[in-house]
Amino acid sequence: MESPAEALVRMLRAASASVATAESLTGGLLAARLTAVPGSSVVYAGGVVSYQTHIKVEVLGVPQDVVDTYGVVSAECARAMADGARRLLGTAYALSTTGVAGPDRQEDKPVGTVYVGLAGPGGTRVVALDLAGDRLQIQVATVDAAVAALLDAVSPAGQPAEDSGLG
Fold first, then answer.
1. 51-55 — which CB contacts under 8 Å span 24+ positions?
2. Distances from the Cα of 51 to the Cαs of 5, 100, 106, 111, 159, in angstroms?
């Protein structure tokens, strides 16, 4: 059975589309999930692990006023990170992850507060998540949600994303 990441790579290839990542709380796990798929180099351009705030600002171009006003654990930051990765790596799509994996609160936001950004040809949207579990469980669930969000965005209308098309 095809995994969601395999389906995503297949669909991106079929669409001749590419993807980049900008990760914070997932620390490279999203990139690892995508690059674990054989042939993913055709669609995965690369990514930035922007664990520290100044990397989000200086490399991804997250506006300092977004950080000052909303914080790095925010929909606004996730949106700016995804837009920045898409621009920086010149891809059709970009995914971003930011949030609180734990064990402590960050910016007065509870553990499990997560935002996934998805930038693409049709604009940028953010998925807000309220996750439970330990640090690794939150990171893995965030990666699952990011893959699912992009899979949904590139899935042909009327065809379930999990359909391999092999009949």
1. 51/24, 51/27
2. 23, 11, 13, 16, 36
Three-state SS letters, 66-106: HHHHHCCCCHHHHHHHHHHHHHHHCCCEEEEEEECCCCCCE
Residue 36 in any domain: the answer is yes
Q: What is the domain-level CATH number for residue 31?
A: 3.90.950.20
Q: Are 9 and 39 in contact (CB under 8 A)?
A: yes
* pLDDT, tens digit (0-9, with 9 covering 90-100), for 27-48: 999 999 999 999 999 999 999 9
Comparing CA positions, the residue from 65, 54, 45 lying closest to residue 24 is 54
In a domain, 164, yes or no: no
Collapse the DSSP code of 160 into the 3-class scheme (helix H, G, I; strand E, B; otherwise coil) and give the result: coil
- Reported as half-sphere exposure (CB side, CA atoms, 13 A), residue 27 has a value of 8
Q: What is the pTM of this model?
A: 0.92
d(CA 97, CA 48): 11
